[in-house]
Specification:
By secondary structure, the protein is of the alpha/beta class. 42% of the residues lie in helices and 9% in strands. It has 15 helices and 8 strands. It has a 6-stranded parallel β-sheet with strand order 1-8-5-4-2-3, with helices on both faces. The protein starts with 21 loop residues before the first strand and ends with a helix. Bound molecules: fe (ii) ion. The site of fe (ii) ion has 6 residues, from helix 5 and helix 9.
Amino acid sequence: MGCQYFDPCDHGADTFTIAIPKLTFGRGCLREAGARAAGLGMTRVGLFTDPGLRDSTYFETVLESLKQAGLDIAVFDEVTIEADDASVERGATFIAEGNFDGVVSIGGGSVIDTAKASMLYGLHPPDEFLDYFAPPLGAGRPMPRSLLPHLACPTTSGTGSECTSISVLRINDMATKFVLANPVLLPQEALIDPACSDTLPAMVVASTGFDLLCHALECYTAKAYTRWDRQDDPLKRPLIQGANPWSDLAARRALEIAGEYLERGVNSADDHEARDNLMWGASLAGMAFGNTGTHLGHALSYGVTHLMHDITTEGYRVKSPFVPHGISVVVSAPAIFRYTAEATPERHYEAASYLQSDLQGAGIDDAGEALAKRLIGLMRKTEVPNGLGGVGFGLADVPALAASSARQVRAIANSPRETNLVDIENIYAAAISY
Ligand SMILES: [Fe+2]
C-alpha cells in the first residue's frame, strides 16, 4: 500500500476486509427510524432497549417513528447494563416467539450487543450457550450466514457497537466477559443522533469517551495486518486482523476528536459541539476497531471486570460490583502504552500527536511517556479513578488479574510488542496508581 508500516512480510497477510453498516448521523435523526426500518423490509419489529431508557424521549421518538411508518412493534426492555448471558437468553426467547422480520435497538453498547446475540441465539439456538464462542472457552460453532435486518441507535458515545460485528457478553457463572465476533452480527444500518448524549451524566461521558479513545489508540498502534498469518479462506479472515489503512483513517480522526473534545464533553453537558463530536468519534473508533481488533488495553480490562469487588461508579444506577467498561480499560492504559511504544515508536509518536500530547522537546523514543502523560492528564481532568488502585486493586491482586486477562489470546497477540504473562504482571504492577 506504499506505506512502511504495512510492508509485506513472509507468509503474512496481503489482504484485509472492511465491514461497516450504512450510517446516518445528525441531531434529530432518530425520527428517521420508521422510514429506515421500513426501507430494510421490516413489517414486524422487535425493539430492544433497557429499563432506564424505556421512559426517555429518545425511546419515545423511535417508537413513534416506527408506529408512523405503520410497523407492528413489540418491546424488549430487559437488558442489563453490561450485557450478560441471562439477558441474551431472555432476548432470545423474545425473538424466537415474536415472529419478527427485523430488529431495532436503542441504547448503549449493552442494548445493541444484546440485540445482536438475541437474534443469533433465538433464531439458531445452540446446544450449550458457549458453543458459539471461540475455543478454548467455547466450541467455535459456525454462525449462520444471515440473521434479521438490524437498525442500531446508540445513545452513548463510546462502544461503537452500532458499527461492529462484535457482541461482548458477561458470562455470569464465570464472572467474566467474552466476545462473540462474526460478520453476521454487524447491524445493517445505524442512526447516530448526538442529541442522545445531552443528558448523559459526566462520568458516563468520561467512561465511554475513554473507551472510544482506547479503541482508536489500540487500533492505531496494533500490529500491522501484514504481520498476521495469511488466511487462505476469505470467509475465515478474522475480525482481529491488525492495523490496516482503513483503520488508520478512522482511528486517527477519533484520536483527534478525543484530544479536542473529551475533557470539554465530560465537564459541560451544554457543550453540544464537544458531545456531538464525541458521538461521531465513537462511531469512527467502532468502525476502526471492528475491522482491526483492540489489543492490550481491552485485553487487560477483562481481568478488572472479572475480579472487581465492592465498587460502584458515580453516575451509574447499578449494583456493586461494577466498574464501567471504559474505566476498566483506561486504568491500565498509561502503563500499557509506556510498554508498547518500544515496539513501534513512530506509531506511538503519531498517536500522541493526534491526541494533542505535549511533544515539545520529545523525540520518537519519548512517545510512550508522552502518551502516558497525556492519558493521565485527561484522567485527572475528568476525575476518573487513578489507576487500578482507584478501582479497588493493589499489588497483591496482580497475579490473579494477569492470569485472568491472559485468556484474551488473540487480542494480546494483536499488540505491537510480544507480550507474555510476566509482561502483563509488570504492566498491572505499574498501573496501580499514576
Ligand atoms: Fe471498548
